[in-house]
Amino acid sequence: MLKPDLEFLYIKGNQKFQDVAFQQPIRQHQPKVNAIKLKGFQQFVELINKQQEQQQQLKTCSQCTPQLLPTVISYPPRIEVQTRKASEMKLFVKKSFIDTPTESHSQERSKKDIRLIPQKQFSIKRAITSKNEDSNIIFEQNEFPILIALSNNLSVQPPDRAIYKAFVTKGNNGILIRQSLKQRPWWILIDQPSEDMNFYWTQLRKQAHYEQLQKQQLEMVSFSKLQKKQVNDKLKYKIEDSEYSIFNQSVSLKVHNHLECNFQVCNKKALFYNMKNYYISRNEDPFQFIPLTYHIQTGSNDPAYLEFEQYAQTQNVNLWIVKPGESSNRGNGIQVANSIQKVKSIISQSSNHHNGMKKTFIVQKYMEKPLLYNKRKFDIRCYILMTSINNKFKAYWYQEGYIRTSCKEFSLDDVEDKFTHLTNDAVQKKNQNYGKYETGNKVSFNEFQKYLQDNYNYNFSIIIDQLKKLSTDIVKATYQHLDPNLNFYTFELFGLDYMIDQDMKPWLIEVNTNPCLETCCPLLARLISHLIENTIRIAIDPMYPPPLNKKKHIQDQKNLFELIFSTTLITDTVTQPIIKEDDDEHDDVEDDN
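^ that's the sequence the OP posted. Answer follows.
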């Protein structure tokens, strides 16, 4: 008999339902009834007692006698599964869990007090009618990591029972990476690196770790049309290959958060040569995208210095910025020079790095007329994620970034004033005006868009498109020199720094292998946490699926990574890099800020 003041959801059919999902989880005390989630909360014991009292007063409907399975589900709004046959199931939802409904034994009265809950209010997963149905069906709850894996020509099989191990070094807000991993109960954090760890997160590359990576011999399977369609529809990525590999060794899989030979991107001199060669190969002037640059290795007798000196004299250019060619971050070693003699004095200093390698210098033309933010200099921090998985090299552009401002108004009167000319946090936070104009000297893209619109009637999205193209050029210029041993699985998150001149033209300044993850202000607290979570969803989750005994839905979060480059790696590279060895120091250092 139906009960007054109840709402019900009627589910009919002899199909096996994969899942029934609502807003919040509730507990269920019925074998073989799928988990149900509904809004609401009330004391557990009180509800159980009320339900037991009310169930005693209900009369069993004669039509529902066969295979009756009384069920109690806790947490309001209360649900009662009154009957369940092989062919149907009724869920009764009590509209009020405070007032006890009046007694009524009239079936006509009961029907008036109930209403059908539209199924569109709930998320009910597709039913599986047969074990022989296509095993490649992807359900919405876990589809994103599955699709990412398929885009890399992989189908990663979850293990029956396993725990993955991760070691995260201290520094640069490593706690943020730990927090993201803790949301995944199939991961545990270890205190020291071990041979059986799966994930090794460090601030700088650990070359010895690549020696532990193993080649994979995998079974090949043909793509189905459905699989290709799902990847194309959801990821906007067209799969060209006809086959993918079955991978079932996640338990023993190892990964490092740095690409092998990443110095080809983040080493200042290596980046300069790679970008220069790339643009020349395209018959383009490299110094329309990067500042005019000279790499000086042997002091004032170096041919590059002589070329620099001749240009500076003939063009009457006296404003330059001098940077260490390697092993530099946080603004260390950077100087602005306003004469040829000053540049000569800097590059004539003969010294070695801690690892014994001789120091070299990058001399770049200083931007005399940069675009200013409220009369102060700024640069733009952007991010790209590169992944090398199963010989598929991909690069993703992160759609959010931020502006880093200086504390003092821009002026060329004192070129040695770092608070005017360097925007690094490590420099600016030492000034008494740090945080005075913007919290943490940071400005969001939205705020900057408003500034450009109000002051220049200019759309920041135009600059964003140019930054995205420059970032793609970085990948195209360097990917052949990254991961030269074609490791099965590596990835890296890079921080990119750009500047804009007064003509709204962006310029590439540098790329950082250890981008700052500190959250010194509310803007970064939100942006960086989302960045890390998005990184793990693309670079980690697809290769380390939750074991079958630890299925858990990770709270949905909008993916802000956009695929900007994809190719298949080949053994023989077309060109060889100018810088073939990494002479940077390999000890972990502080972040790049």
